[in-house]
Write the structure tokens for this entry.
Amino acid sequence: MLSLNAELRAFYDARQQQIPAEVREVMRRAGQALADSGQSDRALTVGDQAPRFRLPSATGRTTALDDLLADGPVVLTFYRGAWCPYCNLALRALQQHHTDITARDARLVAVSPQIPDESLTLTEKHDLAFDVLSDIGSDTAKQYGLAFDLPDDLAAVYDKLGFDLQRVNGGHPRTLPLPATYVIDGTGTIRWAFADTDYTKRAEPADIITALDALG
């Protein structure tokens, strides 16, 4: 069975052949600029306290990090949105490992800047058993050091591709989070962290399980 990142790389390689050269160049330049910006170095990491949040779930119920931590460790993952095929592959992989996560008394939650209706559609489409939360305006992503703004030319490409981020992100079409995953212990301390400016790379579920086992 392929690792998640091997699956993501295979998808990327196949997709490149379908994207016009000028669009690939816009994406390449934006990716390089984001990598050069040092954004991933500003993301919270191991040893930091996890900023608390209260966010609506796909069904509109408010979910608070403190409430989740009361039951044990939390696996918190940030993704760009249901329009992002790499996010969908990553969420599907997490769902496949959800039983392994809950067996370690941990809760898995996913956060994106999408409105709850979009999260609900995503949850139903992929039959997700974990909470998908809406961080409209990316205020929580900003607290974790993950939020960035799309450059003009890439935003225009996304518009042409029909992603309609103005609608799905509740009037905040330019701000997205870096892909990131955190394992947070009961004290609210980040014990394992993954954050990357490259949206085609994600935390491996096996590494998350290992991190949970290391909590003892």
Notes: The mean pLDDT is 95. The chain has eleven helices and nine strands. The chain has one domain: 4-39+50-214.
